[in-house]
Amino acid sequence: GQIVSRDELAAINEKVETIGGAAAKGRKPKPATAQTLLLGITKASLKSESFIAAASFQETTKVLTEASLSGRLDKLYGLKENVILGHLIPAGTAFKPHLELKVAHLAEPPVPKIFAEEVRQVEDVEARADAAVKEALGID
Q1: pLDDT tens per residue, the chain (140 residues)?
Q2: Would you say the pTM of this structure is higher than 0.85?
Q3: Which domains does the chain have, with CATH numbers?
Q4: What contacts 80, CB < 8 A, 6 or more positions away?
Q5: Cβ distance 89 to 79 under 8 Å?
């Protein structure tokens, strides 16, 4: 047996149900069964899906060594590992669906006022540039 979370157990059983009872080596697959297991605080934290969160609690060198040797990847889904790394926590306004929201503005953004003097200066510069180009090309 293995120690898995309820979510993992549900995902595994869902896969078995989608197979629809197709035979695997002569036997139909059966959904996995489970028993609830109450772990102490130390063991529960070390069983965390995030090795960064587990390493922050206890047995840091052991957790990090095992994670590096097995090539584990931490997806940084939890609050604790994001706080440790100094990232935005996935909650509130930093919750991923909130970050991907596109806001539609109901009103046009204010257009900056351009003063007549600035417009005249820009037009003068453009006219001088055009004249210089024409002179350089020998165009009247």
Answers
A1: 777 888 888 988 888 888 765 555 667 777 888 888 777 766 666 667 788 888 887 788 988 898 899 999 988 888 888 888 898 887 877 777 777 777 777 777 766 666 777 877 888 999 999 999 999 988 87
A2: no
A3: 38-137 (1.10.150.390)
A4: 50, 52, 53, 56
A5: yes
DSSP secondary structure string, the chain? -----HHHHHHHHHHHHHHTT--BTTB-------------HHHHHHT-S-HHHHHTTS-HHHHHHHHHHHT------SHHHHHHTTPPPSSGGGSHHHHT--PPPSSPPPPPPPPHHHHHHHHHHHHHHHHHHHHHHT--
Residue pointed to by tokens 């540039």: 129
